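For the sake of clarity, the format in which proteins appear in this thesis is described at this point. Each number in the token line that follows is a code from a learned vocabulary of backbone shapes. One such record is shown here in full, so that the layout can be seen directly:
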Amino acid sequence: MRVFVTGASGGIGQVVTEELVAHGHEVLGLARSEASAQKVAAAGGTPLRGGLGELDVLTAAAREADGVIHLAFSNDFSDLERSIAEEGLAMDTIGAALVGTGKPFSIVSGTTFSKGRAATERDPQSTSGPVGGRGINAGRILGLASQGVRTTAVRLPRSVHERYVAYGFAGILIQAAQRSGVSSYVGDGSQRWPAVHRRDAASLFRLMLEKGEAGTAVNAVGDEGDSMLAIATVIGEKLGLPVQQVPAETFGPLGQIFAMDQPASSAWTRDAYDWRPTHPGLIADLEAGDYPEIER
């Protein structure tokens, strides 16, 4: 299958590209710069120069491909509204190019919230809060299942990780600790964060591209929930820093998210698609230490 992948040079996109190529697929990866193009090529894909805002490029690539995986997001947390709007327009453009084709279109989404228990795949996507717009975007794309597009959403947890390389939201805690000299947590630290190894997540994206039922959302969750305090404690130990409670506002627009208890389950996903995470959990990857240094 010839697969168009947005965000193919990113931390998740690179391993998704590697996973697809390893299973016999051909990847056309969107790349905004020469550096991004080199990353796509190194992962085994063919770079396509362009960005999320170049809608004609997205349309042409989607029409030519046998399927699409959308991963790109600007991650500009200083202007989440703009980033979410850009993502939504790009996804709508790709979806429009696929209407009536029956082609698979798998998008990235986030695990949702369910008070008092681990959220499941059957829980509706959150459409409120700082990143609620992404849930609205995802729901709109899944709705294209009724228009002849085999749409699926892979809900990623807060921390998509791999030791020495990526830590997801836990990486924000690492960087904050390196800058401030303390390893921080919000509230009493009992709030739980789900996580997944990025290579396990990549295998689920491939499965949904190949086998996903139209209109389906799955949870790419390896660990249902490690407490924020446990995460901060490991980071503090590895950096040789004290562990300290801080106000949620310390983390800006993400503080509200960090304060939420949001465990999630992938039991249905595992049964329905025979997905079996095999890589280390977040705490094990954090305990390996040797975190990337930030630029000061």
Observations:
- The chain has a mean pLDDT of 94.
